[in-house]
Design brief:
Order of helices and strands: HHHHH
Distance between the termini: 56 Å
Oligomer: single chain
Shape: elongated
Protein backbone atom coordinates (compact mmCIF):
# COMPACT_ATOMS: atom_id res chain seq x y z
CA UNK A 1 0.00 0.00 0.00
CA UNK A 2 2.87 2.42 0.67
CA UNK A 3 4.11 2.03 -2.92
CA UNK A 4 0.63 2.89 -4.20
CA UNK A 5 0.48 5.93 -1.94
CA UNK A 6 3.89 7.11 -3.17
CA UNK A 7 2.93 6.81 -6.84
CA UNK A 8 -0.47 8.39 -6.22
CA UNK A 9 1.21 11.42 -4.60
CA UNK A 10 3.65 11.55 -7.51
CA UNK A 11 0.74 11.48 -9.96
CA UNK A 12 -1.01 14.27 -8.07
CA UNK A 13 2.09 16.46 -8.10
CA UNK A 14 2.63 15.79 -11.80
CA UNK A 15 -0.97 16.63 -12.59
CA UNK A 16 -0.67 19.91 -10.68
CA UNK A 17 2.48 20.85 -12.60
CA UNK A 18 0.95 19.87 -15.95
CA UNK A 19 -2.24 21.86 -15.34
CA UNK A 20 -0.39 24.93 -14.07
CA UNK A 21 2.08 24.78 -16.92
CA UNK A 22 -0.68 24.36 -19.47
CA UNK A 23 -2.50 27.46 -18.23
CA UNK A 24 0.68 29.55 -18.19
CA UNK A 25 1.68 28.40 -21.67
CA UNK A 26 -1.85 29.08 -22.92
CA UNK A 27 -1.91 32.60 -21.50
CA UNK A 28 1.40 33.43 -23.16
CA UNK A 29 0.55 32.23 -26.65
CA UNK A 30 -3.20 32.65 -27.04
CA UNK A 31 -4.43 35.98 -28.42
CA UNK A 32 -6.18 37.95 -25.69
CA UNK A 33 -9.62 37.71 -27.28
CA UNK A 34 -9.48 33.88 -27.13
CA UNK A 35 -7.96 33.40 -23.67
CA UNK A 36 -11.24 33.10 -21.81
CA UNK A 37 -12.61 30.59 -24.30
CA UNK A 38 -9.47 28.48 -24.15
CA UNK A 39 -9.42 28.50 -20.35
CA UNK A 40 -13.08 27.45 -20.24
CA UNK A 41 -12.39 24.65 -22.73
CA UNK A 42 -9.55 23.32 -20.57
CA UNK A 43 -11.71 23.40 -17.46
CA UNK A 44 -14.64 21.73 -19.24
CA UNK A 45 -12.48 18.86 -20.47
CA UNK A 46 -11.03 18.41 -17.00
CA UNK A 47 -14.54 18.45 -15.49
CA UNK A 48 -15.69 15.83 -18.00
CA UNK A 49 -12.77 13.66 -16.97
CA UNK A 50 -14.20 13.00 -13.53
CA UNK A 51 -17.41 11.37 -14.81
CA UNK A 52 -15.27 9.49 -17.34
CA UNK A 53 -13.34 7.95 -14.45
CA UNK A 54 -16.64 6.84 -12.92
CA UNK A 55 -17.59 5.29 -16.27
CA UNK A 56 -14.26 3.47 -16.48
CA UNK A 57 -14.65 2.18 -12.93
CA UNK A 58 -18.10 0.83 -13.78
CA UNK A 59 -16.56 -1.54 -16.33
CA UNK A 60 -13.19 -2.12 -14.64
CA UNK A 61 -13.73 -2.94 -10.98
CA UNK A 62 -10.16 -3.69 -9.83
CA UNK A 63 -8.50 -0.50 -8.58
CA UNK A 64 -5.13 -1.57 -9.98
CA UNK A 65 -6.47 -1.73 -13.51
CA UNK A 66 -8.37 1.53 -13.08
CA UNK A 67 -5.12 3.21 -12.04
CA UNK A 68 -3.34 1.63 -15.02
CA UNK A 69 -6.00 2.84 -17.48
CA UNK A 70 -6.05 6.37 -16.05
CA UNK A 71 -2.25 6.47 -16.04
CA UNK A 72 -2.23 5.41 -19.69
CA UNK A 73 -4.66 8.18 -20.59
CA UNK A 74 -2.54 10.71 -18.70
CA UNK A 75 0.55 9.45 -20.54
CA UNK A 76 -1.23 10.13 -23.83
CA UNK A 77 -2.05 13.62 -22.57
CA UNK A 78 1.68 14.27 -22.24
CA UNK A 79 2.26 13.94 -26.00
CA UNK A 80 1.08 17.49 -26.85
CA UNK A 81 3.13 18.86 -23.95
CA UNK A 82 6.26 17.15 -25.26
CA UNK A 83 5.62 18.36 -28.82
CA UNK A 84 4.88 21.97 -27.89
CA UNK A 85 7.66 24.55 -28.16
CA UNK A 86 9.33 26.14 -25.17
CA UNK A 87 7.68 29.15 -23.64
CA UNK A 88 8.87 32.42 -25.21
CA UNK A 89 9.17 33.90 -21.74
CA UNK A 90 11.42 31.03 -20.67
CA UNK A 91 13.54 31.41 -23.81
CA UNK A 92 13.98 35.15 -23.20
CA UNK A 93 14.97 34.49 -19.58
CA UNK A 94 17.68 32.13 -20.87
CA UNK A 95 18.93 34.67 -23.44
CA UNK A 96 17.56 32.77 -26.44
CA UNK A 97 15.84 35.80 -27.95
CA UNK A 98 15.88 34.67 -31.59
CA UNK A 99 14.13 31.39 -30.75
CA UNK A 100 11.49 33.26 -28.74
CA UNK A 101 10.87 35.65 -31.66
CA UNK A 102 10.51 32.73 -34.05
CA UNK A 103 7.89 31.06 -31.83
CA UNK A 104 6.02 34.31 -31.29
CA UNK A 105 6.14 35.00 -35.03
CA UNK A 106 4.65 31.60 -35.77
CA UNK A 107 1.76 32.15 -33.37
CA UNK A 108 1.25 35.74 -34.50
CA UNK A 109 0.91 34.44 -38.05
CA UNK A 110 -1.71 31.92 -36.90
CA UNK A 111 -3.60 34.73 -35.13
CA UNK A 112 -3.21 37.01 -38.19
CA UNK A 113 -1.41 39.59 -36.09
CA UNK A 114 1.82 41.51 -36.58
CA UNK A 115 4.48 41.70 -33.91
CA UNK A 116 7.11 44.36 -33.53
CA UNK A 117 10.72 43.23 -33.70
Amino acid sequence: MSTYLFYRCLQGAGTFVAISGMHIWLMELTPSKYRVVMTVMINITRSLGYPAIVGVSYFITDWRYITLVIGGIMALALVPVLLSPDSPRFLVSKGRISEAKKILGKYAKLAKQKIST
